[in-house]
Structures are given as structure tokens and as C-alpha cells.
Design brief:
By secondary structure, chain A is an alpha+beta fold. Chain A has one helix and eleven strands. The chains are: A alpha+beta, B mainly beta.
């Protein structure tokens, strides 16, 4: 046994562990300080969604013998979006839908009706766009809250069979 | 080995630091609408009085007809039928019949005598919303009916899903 060499190996292992710990700490610090927080999108009002719009004989455009009114709009602030955690950066909001039960002749569309509140700015999305596969809705810079969104149902006809139709709209914020 | 490990770790730090600012985050909202069964029918008005007042010698009284009223219909239930009835039956030896023009894409049962029992008059094969479909009333009597005083019958048309 060489006591002097054994002590030297232990010293080296301790130093190695210290360096690893230091590096991991540095990595964590860089991630926290240099790597921005995740941007968030949330809904603060209209949490129940635009639900239970009942189309019945009261929705005939001109009484008996006429067709159903084909287009229906929600309130201008039916959905309110909050964009946070951007740390001043640019972002985009995409929109898509996933049907539970939907009639193919009926289109649901969305448009942005407000600029929101806060230091940020938003652009685009001011005209109704049909919601389907994931697509760009609007863009923005910096945090903003209370961005109003309005929904529209169109293409409703007497040929849509009686039923309850549901879809889930997804808003996704990304870089 | 240690130096290689340090090198990999440092490289990882710089790679992670260069990642985009944030990851995509989503929120959802449900939208629901309901379409209820819609079955509506209406008429343009009352036909003029149907009066039998002539006959050919040796023949039955001449039947009369009115085809000046129409019906409107809106139904979102394919296969719905239109039935008709009157509030009280016709006097003996007299018959009031009705013919509804077929709705678009549907069928008419032709001339059907009216009674207090609802009779099928037409079938809507498709969901339909339209107006101006002709209603034809025929009033006939045999000589055995004798003189029949004027009376009013209430005809009820119903869309049956």
C-alpha cells in the first residue's frame, strides 16, 4: 500500500465532484437567468365558452316556410386572452379546433376585437377566419391581457339535423 | 475523462442558453350549439265557401273545388309527414277532400277525405323550408245528402316527425 498515492486519489475525486457541482450550478443559473420563462396564454372570462346556442323555430329568418338564419355571432368579448411571460419578446397565437360532434356544413370562425391591456402590442386577426387545423391567429410583442375574441357560426341551414354539437377551440402561444 | 465531461457540460450550457425564448403553451375553450327539432306549417288563408248548387239531369250534384290557398312548411327532420283532420265529421253523404302539393323532394298522398281521424297527406323526404305549395279542396255530395245548411269546418294540418 502507498498511503501517499491513496490520499492523492481521494483529493482528485473530491476536486472532480466540486467541479461537477459548480458546473451544474452554473448551468442552472444560466438557464434561470439567461433562458426566459415560458410565455403563457390564459382565458380570464367567458370560461364557460360560447355554449348552448339553441336554434329553434324562433330562428327562422322570415317565419314559417323560411330557412334558418345562417349566421350567428357571439359577444365581442366572448373569449378574453391573457399573454404573459414573454419578457418583452415576440410571440404568435395559433388557433385550431377539435370536434366532438360537428356538422360539416357549419363553420366556426374567430376574430380579435381588442388590443388588450398592458405594455404589449398585438397585430392581425381582425377579420373572421375559419377555425380548423392549427393556423396563425395573431401576433404580438410583450405581455398583454384582456385581448378580446369574438366567435361566429355560419352556414347554418335547415339541413343540419337536430342535435347538440360541440367543438373545442385551442389557442396556442409560441415564439 | 474528467476534462471530456467538463467539455460536454460547458457545451450543454451554451446550447441550452441559445434556445428560443419560450415553449408553446395552449388553452382551450368549448363551443356548443344545439339545433332543436323544427316542424312548422302554416296556410295562406281560408278558402272561399264551397257551394254545391247544380247537377246534371239524372246525375249527382256537381262537386266543387278550390285550389286558391297554399301552405308553407319548415322542417329539419327528413321523413316528416303532414297529416290533416277536421274538427267534426262531415254530414252524411257529403265529402270534403284535400290534396297537398308535394314538398320539394317529397311526395303527396293525393286527394284524401277529411275526417276527425288524421290522414297522411304528404311526406317530406328531405328537410325543407318553402312556401306557396298549393292546397286543393274538393267538396262532393250525393243526392241523398239533401239540403245541407252552411257550416264551417276547421282543418288542422300537422307536421309529424
Amino acid at each position: 500500500m502507498q498511503p501517499y498515492e491513496s490520499v492523492s486519489s481521494r483529493e482528485m475525486n473530491k476536486n472532480t465532484m466540486k467541479k461537477i457541482k459548480f458546473t451544474l450550478f452554473t448551468l442552472l443559473l444560466v438557464l434561470l437567468l439567461g433562458h426566459p420563462l415560458k410565455a403563457q396564454v390564459g382565458i380570464t372570462s367567458g370560461t364557460a365558452g360560447w355554449i348552448t346556442l339553441i336554434l329553434n323555430n324562433g330562428n327562422l329568418s322570415a317565419g314559417i316556410g323560411s330557412a334558418l338564419v345562417s349566421t350567428y355571432e357571439s359577444n365581442a368579448n366572448q373569449i378574453t386572452l391573457d399573454i404573459t411571460g414573454t419578457l418583452g419578446g415576440n410571440y404568435s397565437v395559433n388557433i385550431s379546433k377539435s370536434d366532438t360532434l360537428w356538422d360539416a356544413s357549419v363553420t366556426i370562425s374567430a376574430k380579435r376585437t381588442g388590443v388588450g391591456i398592458g405594455p404589449g402590442s398585438v397585430a392581425g386577426g381582425l377579420a373572421y377566419q375559419a377555425i380548423g387545423a392549427d393556423a396563425l391567429f395573431f401576433t404580438g410583442t410583450n405581455d398583454n391581457s384582456a385581448i378580446d375574441v369574438q366567435l361566429q357560426l355560419s352556414g347554418v341551414t335547415i339541413s343540419v339535423p337536430p342535435n347538440i354539437y360541440t367543438t373545442t377551440i385551442t389557442f396556442t402561444v409560441g415564439p | 475523462m474528467t476534462r471530456k465531461l467538463f467539455g460536454i457540460l460547458i457545451l450543454g450550457v451554451f446550447m441550452l442558453s441559445s434556445l428560443p425564448g419560450f415553449c408553446a403553451i395552449s388553452t382551450t375553450q368549448n363551443v356548443t350549439y344545439e339545433v332543436t327539432a323544427i316542424n312548422e306549417i302554416g296556410v295562406s288563408g281560408d278558402p272561399a265557401a264551397l257551394q254545391i248548387n247544380s247537377a246534371t239531369s239524372g246525375g249527382a250534384p256537381v262537386a266543387v273545388q278550390n285550389a286558391l290557398t297554399t301552405y308553407s312548411i319548415t322542417t329539419n327532420q327528413a321523413g316528416a309527414t303532414i297529416t290533416g283532420s277536421i274538427n267534426t265529421n262531415m254530414p252524411a253523404n257529403t265529402t270534403l277532400s284535400i290534396t297537398l302539393a308535394a314538398p320539394t323532394g317529397g311526395t303527396s298522398a293525393g286527394s284524401q277525405p277529411l275526417s276527425t281521424v288524421a290522414a297522411t297527406l304528404a311526406t317530406c323526404v328531405l328537410a325543407v323550408s318553402e312556401s306557396g305549395n298549393v292546397i286543393t279542396y274538393d267538396f262532393a255530395a250525393t243526392a241523398a245528402a239533401g239540403v245541407v245548411p252552411s257550416a264551417t269546418k276547421v282543418v288542422t294540418l300537422t307536421v309529424v316527425p
